[in-house]
Amino acid sequence: MSTKLRRGFVAAVAMLAGLVFAPGASADQPSGMQPYIVGGGEASVTDHPYAVFLVDGNGNQFCGGTLVADDTVLTAAHCAVTDSASQLGVVAGRQDKRGTDGVQVGVSRVWIAPGYEAPTGGGDIAVLKLSETVPYSPAKLADASDSELYAAGTQATVLGWGRLEEGGDKSDTLRSAQVPVVDDATCGEAYTSYDAKTMLCAGYPEGGVDACQGDSGGPLMVGDTVIGVVSWGDGCAKPGKPGVYTRVATYAEAVSQA
């Protein structure tokens, strides 16, 4: 199995070793969809003000994130574990990566879930404390009271600036796609390392709609609540291989205290 990290430059290295992290696919997929986010369309930061992206020291986007407070960003651990806070930047309020709108701020502190080793082992979640507040509306964190948001078939929205197809170019603009939550039994059949306590899957049985490289760390939303963090999967949008996301509700208390 070729597992996919959905991080930018990490994904490029990982692909050489057959390893790539971030989600896959699963319910009846709308017909006629083209391979964007993969399988979605352009989205507006006005509609999704909590959607942010991470940049390296050279200003290159490599992961996504979710604003959960005016000074706090939720992302994937594999997006933050190899970099010190001083090497990370967060861009908020910017629709097009080539633009200058919105704000870019530094990161003062990084929290990574205790025990994290690799996305397939769970705990692929991190918190970035920003060096200053940003003037955008945050998303709500799913918690233990939000079990209905994780019910199989729930329509969720994944957002990111990642590749438009597996191995293809990244999007310059924010994109979104609708994917249904997949039941744990189906996800466990697709991935032997799937852990229902710390992960969830979303996608279509026939594939075609998914997050891809560069989308890692971005949000899986139900309404204005973030229920998942883009983590890993087998390729991008493959049939029978739904995307795997970190289950936010499991870590909500720790994230709030980070």
TrEMBL record:
<dbReference type="InterPro" id="IPR006311">
    <property type="entry name" value="TAT_signal"/>
</dbReference>
<dbReference type="InterPro" id="IPR009003">
    <property type="entry name" value="Peptidase_S1_PA"/>
</dbReference>
<dbReference type="GO" id="GO:0005576">
    <property type="term" value="C:extracellular region"/>
</dbReference>
<dbReference type="GO" id="GO:0004252">
    <property type="term" value="F:serine-type endopeptidase activity"/>
</dbReference>
<dbReference type="GO" id="GO:0051604">
    <property type="term" value="P:protein maturation"/>
</dbReference>
<dbReference type="InterPro" id="IPR001314">
    <property type="entry name" value="Peptidase_S1A"/>
</dbReference>
<dbReference type="InterPro" id="IPR001254">
    <property type="entry name" value="Trypsin_dom"/>
</dbReference>
<dbReference type="InterPro" id="IPR043504">
    <property type="entry name" value="Peptidase_S1_PA_chymotrypsin"/>
</dbReference>
<dbReference type="InterPro" id="IPR018114">
    <property type="entry name" value="TRYPSIN_HIS"/>
</dbReference>
<dbReference type="GO" id="GO:0006508">
    <property type="term" value="P:proteolysis"/>
</dbReference>
<protein>
    <submittedName>
        <fullName>Trypsin</fullName>
    </submittedName>
</protein>
<dbReference type="Pfam" id="PF00089">
    <property type="entry name" value="Trypsin"/>
</dbReference>
<dbReference type="InterPro" id="IPR050430">
    <property type="entry name" value="Peptidase_S1"/>
</dbReference>
<keyword id="KW-1015">Disulfide bond</keyword>
<dbReference type="InterPro" id="IPR033116">
    <property type="entry name" value="TRYPSIN_SER"/>
</dbReference>
<comment type="similarity">
    <text>Belongs to the peptidase S1 family.</text>
</comment>
<keyword id="KW-0964">Secreted</keyword>
